[in-house]
Design brief:
Strand content: 25-35%
InterPro entries: FecR (IPR006860), Ferrdict_sens_TM (IPR012373)
Protein name: FecR family protein
Keywords: Membrane, Transmembrane, Transmembrane helix
Largest sheet: 15 strands, mixed
Shape: globular
GO molecular function, one term: sigma factor antagonist activity
Number of domains: 3
Number of strands: 21
Structural class: alpha+beta
Distance between the termini: 29 Å
Helix content: 25-40%
CATH class of the largest domain: Mainly Beta
CATH topology of the largest domain: Jelly Rolls
Length: 316
């Protein structure tokens, strides 16, 4: 599939989305996908390209040869865990996913540390709601819940109070809002903070320089890295909170960081035997795929194999 036939390329992709591709056409699409970023039809918009890439991750890759998986053992406990997941479907699953978290006092601070692989929901005293992703933490002084500090990833639905702005502090920036919904990624290992605004308006200020600030509008994503200017892009932010319902979502980060997040979320250690192309930038959204399905999808992007031994993942 080449750029001199953009109408045929687009028609074939639309046929794939409708689920009407023949095996021969699927093979053509697989070959094209391998060079999607280097040589894509000129008449496809960036949004269409990203949409088709997502569809490949969720559907197309499962129709072709999956990456090799090597298991040294499958403990009985994993089969029991799988059975438990089925029993927890429906309302029981949502209860597990959104367990209410209670803060722990530490001096004059209140701290919620999510040490599990599940999402924790926090109801603050001002009626604001915060969802903490796996291994994230939120802290605030006992005297107020309108100024908090976040490490890791959190999704905020802030109760409106025009007299008292709500402030989120991370290592890299300060986020000030009146009443809005937004997602914050402040993973220590990634050395940057990313804010995606769903609705409302927020003011962002660099922690290292109070004069370095910007305003964010709905549908915008801002990234701040040390010694770098603000990087603001426009994107579809509708999916940024899907992780609060069990999804796995990353936007504009390297495959290396995406896999690291996935493994950390599932309490697994990670080892790379091959580092080729792991800095490739991706955006993916997996809606309720299992850990292994998500890992397989990410490895497919790099044409790599993986091995799971207990709680240790090796990619080569």
């Amino acid at each position: 599939m080449t750029n001199n036939n953009p109408s045929n390329a687009k028609a074939l992709l639309e046929k794939f989305q409708a689920g009407h591709c023949t095996p021969e056409e699927l093979a053509i699409l697989d070959q094209w996908y391998a060079t999607l970023e280097e040589d894509h039809p000129a008449q496809l918009s960036a949004q269409q390209t990203q949409q088709y890439k997502q569809q490949f991750l969720h559907t197309f890759r499962n129709r072709l040869q999956p990456p090799a998986i090597i298991r040294t053992s499958i403990p009985v406990i994993r089969w029991l865990a799988a059975a438990c997941v089925l029993l927890l479907a429906g309302a029981g699953y949502r209860w597990l996913l959104h367990q209410q978290a209670q803060p722990v006092a530490a001096g004059n601070m209140q701290i919620v540390a999510n040490t599990t692989s599940h999402v924790k929901k926090i109801a603050l005293a001002d009626s604001s709601i915060v969802w903490l992703n796996a291994h994230a933490s939120l802290s605030w002084k006992q005297a107020t819940t309108r100024q908090v500090t976040l490490e890791g990833e959190g999704y905020f639905e802030v109760h409106t109070n025009t007299q008292q702005p709500f402030t989120v502090n991370t290592r890299d920036m300060q986020i000030k809002v009146l009443g809005t919904a937004f997602n914050v990624e402040a993973y220590t290992a990634e050395k940057m903070t990313r804010v995606a605004l769903v609705n409302g308006r927020v003011q962002l200020r660099a922690a290292a320089d109070s004069n370095n600030h910007t305003l964010l509008q709905p549908g915008q994503i801002a990234v701040l890295t040390a010694n770098q200017p603000w990087a603001i892009t426009t994107a579809n932010t509708d999916a940024v909170a899907s992780w609060t319902n069990g999804g796995f979502v990353v936007n504009n980060i390297s495959v290396k960081d995406a896999v690291a997040r996935l493994c950390e979320r599932n309490a697994c250690t990670l080892e790379w035997k091959s580092i080729k192309d792991i800095q490739k930038i991706i955006s993916v959204a997996f809606m309720r795929e299992s850990f292994e399905q998500s890992l397989s999808n990410l490895c497919y992007l790099l044409h790599k194999q993986y091995k799971i031994q207990g709680n240790h993942v090796t990619i080569y």
